[in-house]
Amino acid sequence: MRQIIALGGGGFLMEPENPLLDQYILNQSTNPKPKICFIPTASGDSPDFIKRFYNFFEKQECETSHLSLFKPPTRDFESFILEKDIIYVGGGNTKNLLALWKEWGLDYILKKAWQQGIILAGISAGSICWFEEGLTDSYGDYLEPLTCLGFLKGSNCPHYDGEAERRPAYTKLIKSGDIKPGLAVADGAALHYKEDKLSNIVSSRPEAKAYKVYMDEGIVEKELQVKYLG
C-alpha cells in the first residue's frame, strides 16, 4: 500500500518533546522495528537537523540512517532507499530540494519507493514536495506557488496557523487561479494518504486544524476533521 504522511509542522524538528506525530509515522509500518531514513536536503543537510533526527529516533524502536547529497554515503542511492521502510524529509528550501533531487535522480527513486510501499513522510518542504503544487517561501521575498513532484493531487500549504502571512497568501493565490485548490495544514497536524486518497488527519496538539481551500462563489475554507493523538 502506498502511503504519504505530510506534516504541516511539528515532529522532532519543531516539538522534540512531543513525540505523537513521529510515533504515529513509525506505527504505520508493518515492520516492528522499521528502517527510517532522514533526507535533510531542503536545509542544505543542516547538521543541527540531522542531530535532532538521531536524538529523537535513536530512542524509538527503529533503525536510523540519513541520506546526504553533499556527502553521499553511497553511489547507489536506489538500493540505499529501497531497503528502507520509512523516508522522512525535513524542512527548508523546497525549490532547492526539488532541483537537487532531480539532478541526482532521487525524484524517480522516491516515486519507485512509494509505489513499492515504502512510507514517505515529511514536514514543511517535506510536505509540499509530494503534491502537484505548494506554497513556498523558497525565493525569500514572499510566498509563491511552486510546481512539485505531483505524487498527490492539488496543492499544499503548511504552517497555516503558525505563520501570519500563510493564510492570506494561499487564499489569494487560489482565488486568482495561480495555485490549484488544496489542503492547508496547521503546525501540529498531519495529512495521511493511503494510495491517492486522504485517509486520516492527525495532530499532536488539540487545537491543530486542517482545511480544504477552494473557490466556490468566493474563497472557501472547509475545516476538516482532525484526530488528536494525545
The gist of it:
The protein has helices at residues 11-14, 20-27, 47-57, 77-82, 94-104, 106-115, 125-128, 166-176; strands at residues 3-7, 35-39, 63-66, 86-89, 119-123, 131-136, 144-147, 152-157, 182-185, 189-194, 197-203, 210-215, 219-223, 227-228. It is an alpha/beta fold. The two termini are 26 Å apart.
Characteristics of this structure?
6-stranded mixed sheet; alpha/beta; 8-stranded mixed sheet; 8 helices; single chain; 14 strands; Rossmann fold; 230 residues
Quickly give the structural class.
alpha/beta
Number of helical elements = 8
What's the arrangement of strands in the largest beta sheet? Answer: 3-2-4-5-1-10-11-14
CATH superfamily: Class I glutamine amidotransferase (GATase) domain
Under the CATH scheme, the architecture is 3-Layer(aba) Sandwich
- Helix coverage percent of residues? 25-40%
Strand content: 25-35%
Number of strands: 14
C-alpha end-to-end distance:
26 Å
Cα shape: globular
**Main sheet record:** 8 strands, mixed
CATH topology: Rossmann fold
- Residue ranges: pLDDT <50 for 5 or more in a row? none
Query: What CATH first level would be assigned?
Result: Alpha Beta
Round the Cα radius of gyration to an integer and report it. 16 Å
State mean pLDDT (0 to 100 scale). Answer: 96
Question: How many domains in all?
Answer: 1
Topology order in helix (H) and strand (E) letters: EHHEHEHEHHEHEEEHEEEEEE
